[in-house]
Amino acid sequence: MLVLTRKLGESIAIDDHIKIVVVQIKGKQVRLGIKAPKDTKIHREEVYSAIKDQNIAAADSHPSLLEGLSKE
Amino acid sequence: MKIDTDRFGVLEAKSSDLISFKEGILGFESLQKFIVLDPGDKTFILWLQSVEDPKVAFPILEPKFLRPDFSLTLAPFERQHLELETDQEIVAYCILTIPSNIEEISANLKAPLVINKIKRLGRQIVLQETKLEIRQNIYKELRLFLAQRPSFDQPEIPMAESISSSNLNSNVNGNGKKKEELEL
Asked: Do the Cβ atoms of B39 and B170 come closer than 8 Å?
């Protein structure tokens, strides 16, 4: 992992078209601005954890639990 | 080829039925080969069964059944990964979670599975829209949908057929032939 130290207002450029800038530092929170091409997908990392957890829960499913769902 | 499954018994599938998830599915990264099957329970819910691990199968449902306005935006890297040439090659499914209380059945609308049905490649895509839930309760919508749809649509992509009697009260008898559909 590449680790860089930035001051308020400084940026990081990724792949020529993506820029991340430190917009604000307030106590323990860092506010980041991200400039990227329209199609770029940007997510908070927690989204991936939540999806992974939900996939694991989904894999516990069994078709017999659906009995009665399609009944009138 | 024969595929062992915990829920559906032994299945018969052609290698052309296989779908490759080159990066696996989040939480199951080591599993890359899957098939889609229909247990014949008329719920429109299909199952993405791992060919490599008999225990692993995900209930899936096309989002268009519950959300007719569902639309997918794919980034160039996602299109490339799926080797997509046209949008006609795409079929999308949401992974469902079916807890023991059926009224808590939920769909992951935020991260659908997107499959290139021609090239047989799949990927779980995380959509950018913030209003989509990872665990959206769909019980009422699903019941309404099923009540309004008397006939069963042809599934979008070819499926494996069950060949043995299974743990489920399926529509397949012992010697591998499909029984007549039972009226519920």
From this structure: yes
Least confident stretch, A24-38, B101-115, B131-145, B162-176: B162-176
User: Rounded CA gap, B147 and B162, in Å?
Assistant: 26
A53 touching chain B per CB within 8 A = yes
| Cα→Cα distances B119→A50, B38, B43, B49, B116, Å | 29, 21, 27, 18, 6
Q: Is A27 exposed, middle or buried (0-12, 13-18, 19+ CB in 10 A)?
A: exposed
CA atoms of B162 and B38, how far apart (whole Å): 9
- Residue in B113, B111, B57 with CA at minimum distance from that of residue A54: B111
Q: State the smallest CA–CA distance between residue B50 and chain A in angstroms.
A: 10
Which residues are within 8 A (CB) of A24 and not within 5 positions of it... i.e. 6 or more apart?
A8, A30, A31
Residues 6+ apart with CB under 8 A from B123: B21, B22, B23, B78, B81, B82, B113, B114
**Nearest alpha-carbon partner for B93 in B51, B59, B131:** B59
Cα B19 to chain centroid, rounded: 11
Mean pLDDT of chain B: 85
Domains in chain A: boundaries = 11-62
Q: Is B124 on the interface with A (CB under 8 A)?
A: yes
Q: Which amino acid is at B149?
A: R
The fold adopted by the segment(s) B2-157 is: BH3618-like (2.30.290)
